[in-house]
Write a structure and sequence with these properties.
By secondary structure, the chain is of the alpha+beta class. The chain has helices at 2-13, 52-59, 67-70, and strands spanning 19-23, 28-33, 40-45, 76-82, 87-94, 105-115, 121-127, 140-141, 147-151. This is STAR5 protein.
C-alpha cells in the first residue's frame, strides 16, 4: 500500500509525457505510456468548488461512503480486513456495462489513506489476493496496478 502511495505521488510530480485526450469545463483527462505494464496510465484533473475536506468525503474509499452514490462505475465497496486505521484490504465491484456485454467486475486491493502536512489527502490502492476474498462466479476478477485519488488544496 505504501509503495502504491509513493507511485501515485511520483505520477503527480512528474509532468513529462502526459498528453491531453479529453477535456470539459470541469475535468481534463490525459494519458501516457506506462513503464509498468503494456498500456497507458490515465489521470483526470479538476478543481472543485468545495473545501478539501468536503471533496475528500466524496472520494475516500470507505464502506458506506459517498462514492457508491455518485460514481456509476462503483456498485459496491467493502472492507475485507482493516489492517490499521489507514490501511485495509477492500473489494470494489462494478456493474455490467454496454447492455450487459461487459460483465460486472470485482477488484481486491490493499488501500492506504494518507494526509500530508500541506493538507493533501491521498488514497492509493494496488491489487492483492486475500484468503477471505476468493473470486466470485458472477464477477470477472480485475487487476489494479497502483492507482488512486489525490485531493490537493488550492488557494481560495
Amino acid at each position: 500500500a505504501e509503495a502504491a502511495a509513493e507511485q501515485l505521488r511520483l505520477y503527480q510530480r512528474d509532468p513529462g509525457g502526459w498528453r491531453g485526450c479529453r477535456s470539459t469545463g470541469e475535468v481534463a483527462v490525459s494519458w501516457r505510456p506506462s513503464a509498468e505494464f503494456t498500456g497507458n496510465l490515465y489521470r483526470g484533473e479538476g478543481i472543485l468548488p468545495g473545501s478539501p475536506r468536503d471533496v475528500w468525503e466524496c472520494i475516500k474509499p470507505v464502506a458506506g461512503g459517498l462514492r457508491t452514490k455518485w460514481d456509476q462505475n462503483v456498485k459496491d465497496f467493502e472492507v475485507i480486513e482493516a489492517l490499521t486505521d489507514t490501511v485495509s484490504v477492500c473489494r470494489t465491484t462494478t456493474p455490467s456495462a454496454f447492455m450487459r456485454v461487459i460483465s460486472p467486475r470485482e477488484f481486491v486491493d490493499v488501500v492506504v489513506m494518507k494526509q500530508y502536512e500541506d493538507g493533501t489527502m491521498l488514497s492509493a490502492a494496488t491489487n492483492v489476493e486475500h484468503p477471505l476474498c476468493p473470486p466470485r462466479p458472477d464477477f470477472v476478477r480485475g487487476f489494479n496496478y497502483p492507482c488512486g485519488c489525490i485531493c490537493i488544496p488550492v488557494p481560495g
